[in-house]
Amino acid sequence: MEQGIMGWLSAARGEGSAAKSQITELGAQVAQQYPMLPILLFALDSEIDPHLLQVPLAARLAELGIKTKVSVAGPGRVQAVMDGSLTPEGQVLLVLASSTADTEDRLMDLVEWLIANGREELAQQMIFIPVGQPRKSVGSYPFRHVPLVKLDSALNSRGGTSKSRRTTANSTEPLLTAVLAQALGLE
What CATH topology corresponds to 36-184? Predict the structure, then answer.
C-alpha cells in the first residue's frame, strides 16, 4: 500500500470511500474559502509537544489543496496572547492535553479564561484533542472532541507495519474532518 507524506496513507488509498468523499468535499470548500487557513495547536500541558502534529497536519491539508499557517503555542496562555498566537477570532484552535483525570477541569478553565479575555469565538469553535488512553468523560462537550492515543507514533513517518499505518490513517480521519468542518464554521 502506498504511503503518503509523513507516514499518513495517501487519501486516495487509505480511507474508506465515504470518509474520502466527505474529506475531499470539505477540503474543496475550505480551499475555495480561505487563501490561507490559520490553525493554532495549543498544548494545555508542557509534556505535550504540538510540533509533532504541526507538519503532518499541514502536509495532509496541502494534499487537499489547502494552504495553511499552522502555529504552535502553550501551555502559557498569556504568553500566547502576547506572541500574537492566540488571536481572538478567525482561526481553527486545536487544544491538545494529556488524557488524565483532571483534563476536563483544566480544559474548562481554559474555556473560561478565553471567554473572560475576549476570545469567546475561539472557546466556541475549538477542537479538543485529549492525548493518551481514552477516559470516560463526565459530560458532553459543547465543542468538537477528537481523542488520539498518541501524537508521536500516530504521526511518525518511520517504521511500523502496513496494518499500523492503516490504523494511523483511520485514527486521524476524525481529526482532519473536524479541522475542515471547523474551518467552514469560522465565518
Answer: Rossmann fold (3.40.50)
